[in-house]
Design a protein that fits this description.
The complex is a heterodimer of chains A (461) and B (295).
Chain A: H1 3-17, E1 33-34, E2 40-46, H2 50-66, E3 70-76, H3 79-91, E4 98-101, H4 106-111, H5 119-124, H6 129-132, E5 138-140, E6 145-149, E7 153-160, H7 161-166, H8 182-192, E8 194-195, E9 211-213, H9 222-231, H10 249-263, H11 271-277, H12 281-286, E10 292-296, H13 300-304, E11 310-313, E12 323-326, E13 329-332, H14 340-349, H15 352-362, H16 373-376, H17 379-387, H18 395-406, E14 410-412, H19 414-417, H20 421-437, H21 443-448
Helix pairs in contact in A: 2-15
Chain B: H1 4-36, E1 39-40, E2 48-49, H2 53-60, H3 62-93, H4 100-112, H5 115-125, H6 132-139, H7 151-164, H8 167-177, H9 182-190, H10 195-206, H11 208-223, H12 227-233, H13 244-254, H14 258-286
Antiparallel strand pairs in B: 1-2
Classes of the chains: A alpha+beta (461), B mainly alpha (295).
Chain lengths: 461, 295
């Protein structure tokens, strides 16, 4: 069956189902296309939006200035529709030259030959990525490199320093080996929750219907839960990716304790409210409506861009300090015959020092944590990174983030390693989690009902 | 003036855009999706023939059955609501009072607002913390709700939203009502029939063909509901609003299972065909066919 004609129903189905979906900006084109003005065109697709998009556009203009013969046609598609857009482009043979790839799909697409193996290109350029960068930021299966990250992501505890000080809560350590225990976190969250008359949930007369500040928000999405599961010595699946772990006593304990925050301690809004707050968490911490929150490291720039001095620490632990990290992948199309320019551009946008230069020049904060060892492992590098945050002194927070990455139990997320992760998460695990958070089912009920025997096919590496 | 052949040529020319559009954008893709439904295709690798395996898998997939149940529940809630409430609204709007045009416009405006904008507005209205609906309830010291954020509330909330979009149905009823023979109403009034009796014994039978049309359209639109789910709930919470079309979309575009989702689409197509046939079959018991002749 030819792919080209088969694209028609894909497009029709796409239009029928998601009339408003679709790409924005210029259409895709082949790598190294010569335009009338003798400029080579490189098509680039990404899902970033808001401040992050502005930052990427700045980086692209910086690249175009340095390479006057190259024209980058950048396209931005919302994350929720990104994979469908990329799949449609793939099916029509019009895949962009350089593109971000949903992290959980990198090894799958790579194994199917839909992503270019970058290893020979890096070898030829004399770059040993596994030494130059944090290994977890490189999508390396032992033989091929299917993608590289522009930075690295981890989970951390953000807190409003003023609120902690006001209510006499000692801030958690920035040393990732000595985080708060879950009990300490819970105690602090209760202490920080305040109603209109400044009473906390343990005070007599506390009014849960007039809460002004919540101590925290339930860490309910899969990234936060994964990080917390790791601190209790478990994960979504066994190490070989063939056994489902969510019915283990450790996983059940984590879910029940998260649920307690809302249902027992009243220091977090219930899930139906909390889920709506997710997108506004930085704003809520800044204006004091939420005191602490487990969130992704990418949020740091949302605080620093506003000049807000937020606190960062390792996530609270159950049994032992632990965390997860991963990168979003930047990939190349295997269809380009001449990919030297595309590869050059890929190297440029995944070079953290270029990000820092763009950040400093434009007075905006860099997105997340550097994935480059020369920055993280040297004092000069750290100074360089810290100096990119011009509005607030982020020395302490940058050190806290580095400490999390260096902590021995910070390991690659299952979103990268586990086969069929997205399918399992979207179809089964996340809906089951939601039924727990909403109080519809106990964790035991929700997860013992799940049959993942079809989906659990092991790990990618 | 013109020969028949010449006239036909013009006729064909005028219908050509519609026919070409139908073939290119509906029938053609439908046929190809039927072919794809017999293949395994992830958009990345070459399709492989799978026979009826996609159909077999769909019938044994608990998520497919769950989404069918959700779609059925939503349809059972929504179809009566968007078929009969607009009928009542239209009869209220079919009066001669000062400013009636304003009321008619108000009912119709939501239908001309893009669905995405409507969804955003209602997502805000349903927001448990910042939404105006709960704010109003708080002011009135009434219990607040979680609406689309709870499993039990999501389908009724979406049904209410569907009612908001039913301005078109009101207009269709209204147009027909204004065309009903007034002499029948006058005769009924002389015989002592009150407003309610006139509505149930005259208006309803005379409008039965329009009710039938709106009913069929309501069933089809409910079973294909997608945009509001995609924008407002994404099938959640806890799959509480996972409509069948949302699952088709997820399989096709989030999980790259084109063959499977095509098979699912054809199952829905057949199911909708059967339901429509059943409704058509029932029409001879309740649709009054003589109303056209009485005009």
């Amino acid at each position: 069956m030819k792919k080209r004609w088969a694209v028609a129903p894909v497009l029709a189905l796409s239009a029928l189902l998601a009339g408003c979906s679709g790409g924005i900006g210029a259409g895709p084109g082949a790598g190294g296309v010569q335009t009338e003005s003798e400029k080579k065109t490189i098509t680039y697709y990404s899902w970033v939006g808001g401040a992050e998009k502005t930052f990427v556009q700045t980086l692209i203009s910086q690249y175009e200035k340095e390479h006057p013969d190259i024209d980058i046609r950048d396209n931005y598609v919302p994350y929720g529709e990104y994979l469908s857009k990329l799949s449609t482009l793939e099916a029509s043979g019009e895949k962009p030259d350089v593109f971000q790839m949903i992290e959980g799909k990198v090894f799958e697409w790579g194994s199917k030959g839909a992503l270019l193996d970058l290893k020979p290109l890096f070898d030829r350029a004399g770059k040993d990525l596994m030494k130059e960068r944090i290994p977890d930021s490189v999508f390396y299966d032992g033989t091929h490199i299917y993608g590289v990250g522009a930075d690295i992501i981890t989970m951390c505890l953000y807190y409003n320093k003023d609120l902690l000080e006001k209510y006499g809560v000692q801030p958690p350590s920035t040393d990732a080996d000595h985080p708060w225990t879950w009990d300490e976190f819970e105690e602090a969250a209760i202490k920080l929750t305040r109603d209109q008359k400044d009473r906390c949930p343990t005070d007599k007369g506390f009014d849960p219907d007039s809460i002004v500040t919540y101590g925290t928000v339930m860490p309910a999405n899969w990234t936060k839960l994964l990080a917390l599961l790791r601190t209790n010595g478990t994960s979504y699946a066994s190490e070989d990716g063939k056994k489902f772990n969510m019915t283990s006593p450790e996983a059940i304990e984590v879910m029940n304790r998260i649920l307690d925050l809302s249902q027992k301690d009243r220091c977090a809004p219930d899930y139906s409210i909390g889920a709506n707050l997710e997108a506004n968490i930085p704003a809520l911490i800044m204006n004091g409506q939420v005191a602490m929150m487990i969130e992704g490291s990418w949020n740091l720039s949302n605080y620093t861009n506003e000049g807000f001095d937020v606190g960062i620490a390792q996530i609270p632990m159950f049994k032992e300090p632990a965390n997860v990290n991963w990168s979003t992948a930047y990939c190349l199309s295997p269809e380009d015959v001449d990919n030297s320019d595309a590869f050059d551009f890929l190297c440029y946008i995944t070079d953290y020092s270029k990000e820092l230069a763009a950040a400093k020049k434009n007075g905006v904060s860099p997105g997340s944590i550097p994935q480059t060892t020369s920055i993280l492992d040297t004092e000069e590098g750290m100074k360089e990174w810290i100096s990119a945050y011009s509005k607030v002194d982020e020395t302490q927070n940058c050190q806290a983030l580095r400490s999390i990455l260096e902590q021995k139990n910070t390991t690659l997320g299952e979103n990268i390693t586990l086969k069929n992760f997205n399918v399992m998460m979207d179809n089964k695990i996340f809906p089951a989690m939601e039924s727990v958070w909403l109080g519809e089912k106990t964790p035991e009920q929700a997860f013992s009902e799940l049959d993942l025997s079809q989906e659990l096919e092991g790990t990618w590496r | 003036m013109f020969g028949r052949k010449h006239q036909n040529r013009w006729g064909y020319l005028f219908i050509a855009p519609a026919v070409v559009g139908l073939v290119l954008f509906s029938l053609g893709p439908m046929f190809i999706s039927l072919v794809i439904s017999f293949y395994r295709w992830d958009l990345v690798t070459k399709p492989t023939f799978a026979g009826f395996r996609n159909y077999q898998e769909a019938f044994s997939d608990p998520l497919v059955w769950h989404s069918l149940r959700v779609t059925l529940c939503y349809s059972l809630l929504t179809v009566p609501l968007i078929t009969f409430v607009p009928l009542l609204a239209a009869s209220l709007l079919n009066t001669r009072i000062r400013g009636i045009a304003v009321f008619r416009t108000l009912f119709y405006i939501p239908s001309i607002v893009p669905i995405a904008a409507n969804c955003i507005i209602w997502k805000y209205i349903y927001d448990p913390i910042y939404g105006p609906l709960n704010a109003l309830l708080r002011v009135m010291h009434l219990p607040t709700g979680k609406y689309i954020n709870s499993v039990s509330g999501v389908l009724p909330s979406l049904a209410l939203f569907a009612l908001w979009l039913s301005g078109n149905t009101v207009v269709i009823y209204l147009a027909r009502m204004q065309d009903l023979p007034q002499d029948l109403y006058e005769a009924a009034a002389l015989d002592g029939a009150g407003r309610a009796a006139r509505f149930f014994h005259l208006t309803c039978p005379l409008l039965s063909s329009i009710i039938f049309y709106n009913l069929v359209m309501a069933i089809l639109s409910c079973m294909q509901t997608f945009s509001q789910i995609f924008i407002m709930t994404e099938g959640g919470p806890a799959n509480g609003s996972l409509m069948y079309t949302m699952l088709v979309y997820n399989n096709a575009f989030k999980q790259s299972r084109m063959g499977y989702s095509s098979a699912m689409s054809w199952i829905l197509f057949v199911l909708m065909g059967l339901i429509t046939l059943a409704v058509f079959g029932s029409s001879r018991f309740w649709v009054y066919e003589g109303n056209e002749a009485s005009r």
